[in-house]
Design brief:
This protein has one domain: Orthogonal Bundle (Cytochrome p450). The chain has 18 helices and 9 strands. Bound molecules: protoporphyrin IX containing FE. Protoporphyrin IX containing FE binds next to helix 11, helix 12 and helix 18. The site of protoporphyrin IX containing FE has 30 residues, from helix 11, helix 12 and helix 18.
Length: 461
């Protein structure tokens, strides 16, 4: 029930999707507090101090400044589709994941991963031009994502966490020291990935120092997420003066962004395109809106993305309801609370299932139908719906911090893609489509599409 979700979110601050007791079972960036190299590993007060430092980085003005960066990677995505050797089988999930990782690379790390440049149709870890460091980095990223599975092929400690959350932490501590166990391999991989992130941070520090020494003559260091955190460190903690931001916090945040902000966004974009391509009525309305915006050469800015694409908003909301990226969110109660007639003692582990809420016929009539209009502001269904019935980004104080960032990226990509193409399912794609439950929901065999170039009467660039 949505009202239970509301109560749970507000009365259980201790863990979240990011600090879940059952690490491979919940939403993006989920790890146990004891093992996570991400910010998820920090609990209540440290977590809220870190979050307060980070929140300003997601303010609208800052996000608006990221539009050109996002736009350039969206342009590469479009070019990769055009350059795909088989226009009848575009590996859309891979291409959109490459774009999402590159965008996080640039906006969070200030680093050009170069994953999507010149690489149509390659595998997710193949970075085209053969930069060994980037290749290794991405291999570790991929492993990190794979370790976080949602089935019984996971590590022993994860499976234990499913049934006996209270023994999971001590068990994991032990298993991480036993070579050959999945926990050990996971820990090794995380250590390698963290060392790489540390190296990026150290190199950014050196660049900043060089910039200061060089005065105006030196090129300005980029204004990415790590730069903003280093600024906050140098200025004594940023927004929160009682909290000293340390290197390990910066590393944790960078790690979390890489894990939380990539597969989720790529899945959402793939899901939108997959669903639109099998709903001609939706496609027609979407094309009308996209074409009505402006000639192709002019990209929307952040304000226009917000205000000029109301139908696209509905399509994205409905796609996120239909294929819920993170079907479970974890919490641990920070005080005793009564929810739906059950008393949950302090410290209880609780799972929220937004995926179940999203298919509740009382909130979404004909829930198996893909119908974006159900989210139109004037729709009776929308007005009657409980505000917590649709929570793809979570709820409460630990809700997704990057949701506006993600939506800005997905909207930009949809606008640019549909200006040039419409898509149909490739004959090579299975039907019905199959899913994997990793850290987040994933298309098991990807989304394979036929790209059909659109005629362009209004094209100006
Ligand atoms: C469509 C894309 C995305 C979806 C569906 C999504 C979903 C979620 C969900 C469900 C949570 C858990 C919320 C809760 O516990 O109530 C979460 C947390 C989080 N997400 Fe996202 N996310 C997306 C994109 C992003 C992006 C792009 C970033 C970063 C740029 C990001 C960063 C985070 C972080 C840092 C947290 C942890 C927040 C905290 O514990 O304080 N996410 N996300």
């Amino acid at each position: 029930m949505p009202s239970c979700a509301r109560k749970l979110a507000s009365r259980s601050s201790r863990t979240s999707a990011t600090g879940a007791p059952l690490p491979r079972q919940s939403a993006p960036c989920t790890r146990t507090p004891s093992s996570s190299p991400g910010a998820s590993g920090f609990w209540d007060s440290t977590w809220s101090a870190i979050r307060n430092t980070v929140v300003p980085l997601y303010q609208p003005a800052r996000l608006a400044g990221l539009v050109p960066v996002m736009q350039s990677y969206v342009g590469t995505l479009v070019a990769n589709i055009a350059g795909c050797p088989d226009q009848h089988c575009i590996p859309f999930c891979q291409l959109s994941l490459r774009m999402a990782i590159d965008i996080i690379g640039k906006t969070a790390f200030g680093v050009e991963f170069g994953l999507s440049k010149n690489s149509p149709g390659g595998s997710e870890t193949d970075c085209g031009e053969g930069d060994d460091d980037v290749r290794e980095f991405l291999k570790e990223y991929k492993l990190s994502m794979e370790f976080i599975k949602m089935d019984l092929s996971s590590s022993l400690s994860t499976i234990l966490g499913l049934f006996l959350p209270c023994v999971q932490t001590p068990c994991r501590r032990l298993l991480r020291r036993v070579p050959g166990t999945a926990d050990y391999k996971m820990a090794e991989n995380e250590r390698r990935l963290c060392r790489r992130i540390d190296a990026i941070i150290a190199s950014r520090r050196r660049d900043r120092a060089a910039h200061r020494r060089g005065g105006d003559a030196a090129p300005s260091p980029p204004l990415d997420f790590i730069a903003a955190l280093l600024d906050a460190m140098e200025n004594g903690g940023g927004a929160n003066k009682d909290f000293a931001l340390e290197d390990r916090h910066v590393r944790a945040l960078a790690y979390e962004h890489l894990i939380a902000g990539t597969k989720t966004t790529a899945f959402t974009l793939s899901s939108v395109v997959y669903l639109v391509s099998c709903h001609p009525g939706v496609e027609e309305k979407l094309l009308r809106e996209v074409d009505g915006f402006a000639p192709r050469g002019r990209s929307p800015d952040a304000d226009e993305l917000q205000s000029r694409f109301p139908y696209l908003d509905q399509v994205i909301k409905e796609a996120m309801r239909f294929h819920l990226v993170s079907p479970l969110i974890a919490r641990q109660t920070s005080e005793s609370v009564e929810i739906g007639g059950y008393v949950l003692p302090k410290g209880a582990y609780v799972w929220l299932a937004p995926g179940v809420l999203a298919r509740d016929a009382a909130q979404f009539p004909d829930p198996e139908e893909f119908r974006p209009e159900r989210f139109a502001p004037e729709a009776e269904e929308e007005r009657a719906r409980h505000p917590y019935a649709h929570i793809p980004f979570g709820v409460g104080p630990r809700a997704c911090i990057g949701h506006k960032f993600a939506l800005q990226q997905v909207k930009l990509a949809v606008v640019e893609l549909y200006r040039r193409y419409v898509f149909r399912h490739s004959a090579a794609m299975e039907s019905p489509i199959q899913f994997d439950f990793d850290l987040v929901l994933a298309f098991r065999h990807g989304v394979k599409l036929r790209a059909i170039r659109r005629a362009s009467p209004t094209e100006s660039g």
